[in-house]
Specification:
By secondary structure, the protein is α/β, with parallel strands linked by helices. It has helices at 8-21, 26-33, 37-50, 70-82, 93-100, 104-114, 132-144, 214-227, 247-255, 274-286, 294-310, 321-338, and strands at residues 150-166, 185-198, 204-209, 233-238, 259-263. The longest helix is centred in the last third of the chain and has 18 residues, at 321-338.
Length: 342
């Protein structure tokens, strides 16, 4: 009765029973505890018949019974998980309701109670690289324990950046209204950004070039060689794009021994931190921009580069190779379990 941690209904019933033991009338107990006289009589009868252990038990009510049979609920869940409607890839509330002979609201309640969301689909990709584990450990090891007397760069190309001009001027933002821009656009050409993110300080070496062949990659490597102080080794993390392994590139690297290339596994762009920087570039400088020509686009990219390097922010890698491998293994197990059904 004096407990501050027990459930409220248990404390309430205990108070009623203590008052009853003191000879207080049921009507007065009901007023003091805040319930009906009928409830007090019921608690006293149950206590006399069943004792203290079932004092706080919640009894099944006599309210409205479910109108949808359990078999129908199971049928809806089974159809949602293992079938598709004719001519469509997934069920909607209305299509399922029509087939099962219930209301769309009923289908929605059943799906919500079980966390089923047929209208949503997430994407994934597991690398099939035969050297996945070896490359992963190499790259993550560089992130977590960078080498001494060296610069660690994450390099990639952001190709086909479009210089888009809107067909009509947008309206500026004002109180209560967001800025507007037309949904259609005019294409004014493209450019390719070569970028190398310094993992330790967040600065970026970047250059816009018209294409992304091995010759442009060599030009960018020469720029990196000029900008990184002499005497420092250069460890560069990059993907498996063919130009990165071109014969001319390998010949140049054989003459510049301070460059060490580390290739991420195939289909693992998430392992390259410069992709995270590309996302910021796209959101803050390109997506909502208006570019009348490719030079306008390049000027906007260079302005973002300069602002980034004036106040750089490093991206900190925290996941260990063991954690990533465990997660990938869970994904492979899930795929193997689904393989026979497909």
């Amino acid at each position: 009765m004096r407990s501050r941690t027990a459930q409220a209904r248990v404390v309430q019933r205990a108070k009623a029973l203590v008052l009853a033991a003191d000879g207080v009338a049921n009507s007065r107990i009901a007023v003091q505890v805040g319930v009906s006289v009928k409830a007090v009589r019921t608690w006293r009868r149950r206590f006399a018949e069943e004792g203290l252990p079932k004092l706080g038990e919640v009894r099944k009510g006599r309210g409205r019974k479910p109108t949808i049979p359990a078999a129908k609920v199971d049928a809806i869940v089974e159809a949602t998980l293992h079938t598709t409607p004719p001519g469509a890839t997934h069920w909607s509330c209305r299509t399922m309701a029509k087939v099962q002979g219930v209301s769309s609201a009923t289908v929605q309640r059943i799906w919500s109670a079980r966390g089923l969301k047929p209208h949503l689909a997430t994407t994934f990709k597991l690398s099939n690289d035969p050297h996945f584990e070896e490359k992963l450990i190499d790259v993550v090891g560089l992130y977590l324990d960078p080498p001494d007397k060296a610069v660690l760069l994450c390099m990639d190309e952001k190709s086909q950046i479009k210089a888009l001009d809107r067909t009509q001027p947008g309206l500026p933002m004002k109180k209560g209204w967001a800025g507007t821009m037309t949904h259609d656009y005019k294409r004014n050409g493209t450019t390719t950004l070569f970028a190398a993110l310094n993992v330790l300080d967040g600065k970026v070496i970047g250059e816009c070039l018209p294409r992304h062949r091995h010759s442009e990659f060599l030009r960018f490597l020469r720029r990196v060689d000029r900008e990184v102080p002499k005497g420092l080794q250069i460890h560069m993390i990059l993907d498996n794009y063919a130009t990165h392994k071109h014969d001319q590139v390998e010949l140049w690297l054989s003459k510049h021994l301070r460059f060490h290339l580390h290739f991420i596994p195939t289909s693992s762009s998430w392992l390259n931190l410069v992709e995270r920087w590309f996302r910021d570039l796209d959101e803050k400088a390109i997506r909502r921009g208006v570019f009348h020509s490719v030079p306008n686009l390049i000027a906007a990219i260079e302005a973002y580069l300069n602002a980034n390097n004036d106040s750089p922010r490093a991206f900190v890698w925290t996941a260990t190779a063991e954690q990533i491998l465990a997660k990938v293994q869970r994904g492979r197990v899930a795929l193997q379990q689904l393989a026979p059904q497909n």
